[in-house]
Amino acid sequence: MKKIIVLLFLFLCSCALQPPSVFEGSYVGYLPPNEVQNKIIKDCVNFLVEKYPPGYTALNAVYPQRGIDSFSLNLESALREKGFEISPSANLRLGWFFNTLDPEPVSEKEQWYVKLWLSSKDEKQIVTRIYTQTGDPVAGFANGKL
User: Fold this and answer.
1) At what angle are helices 70-82 and 34-51 packed, to 10 degrees?
2) How far apart are CA 77 and CA 15, in angstroms?
3) Domain residue limits at 137
4) pLDDT tens sequence across 102-144
């Protein structure tokens, strides 16, 4: 009986520790001024351009469930401008998480956090980066495969 309880506990713990999936949708929290948003978006799009060839890549953008926001609209626009097709039937799904790291927004130490989820039948990865208050990268992209 103890073995069954231990196995059940381990199974439930492994389920709880699973990373969020792109299929859960995107999230955008507190937003910085447009010029900071656009700087961060440009950086994220340039990363995607290096990884996936625009003009040959279609993305299935997974938007926040609570509605469309300026970050999501500007991200889609920037992706289209670079040559990406945005289509709900695309095999490569793209989701994002964007918010401040500071619990008190609009502080002098405010930093921004972006997480991109990329998912297809062949690969799943999460890419993250932290930005300063002005939208400059703090460090390189952290890239992890699932």
Assistant:
1) 40
2) 36
3) 2-145
4) 766 566 678 999 999 999 988 899 999 999 999 999 999 998 8
